[in-house]
Design goal:
alpha/beta, 40% helix
Amino acid sequence: MGRLLITQSLISAWAYMFDCYEGHEDSAREAFERALRREPTDRTGAMQNGIDFENCVYAEAAGRPRGPHAKWEDGIQAVANQIRGAQTQVKASMEIEAGGEKLLLYGILDALKAGVIYDVKFSKSYEAGKYLNSAQHPAYFRLIPEAYEFRYLISDGTCLYTEVYRRVPTRPIEGIIAEFLESLRCMGYMETYREKWAALS
């Protein structure tokens, strides 16, 4: 049996079904099902803002010309100062085994510098510990063996909030993936996953 592609974003869509706001259960399940079927989704205003903010940050960090942004300039500068000199949009993949399956773990790091992984988030609001249970830092620690620290750089366009995680005591991604796979089997999604996420040899 061949390998299956796995990404932290797919795991996050699955996890959100169990951690969404009350009353949003149906929409969370529908969003996960679309992700599982690899269907394109319409870009929301919030998604576009996040993309625009990140593009401004990358341009500023690299010293590329860009116009000033009246609403987000302070946030752009603060985040860019953190990742200046880093490699950006770093693609990484690794073969792993979890939950009785052979998998190809894949991710794109926002920035990597001197053993530190950075992920840029744009959010209208922030509460401390927002990414504590995220699969992103466990996945990226697995993909980048030399990394010792992961920093979420969260901005609302004005302020910068930082969440820092170390390799220890971060939970290994294999355990999270095993729970994900067992859940798919129990909910009857495994066939769809095998069909839509078969990794190319």
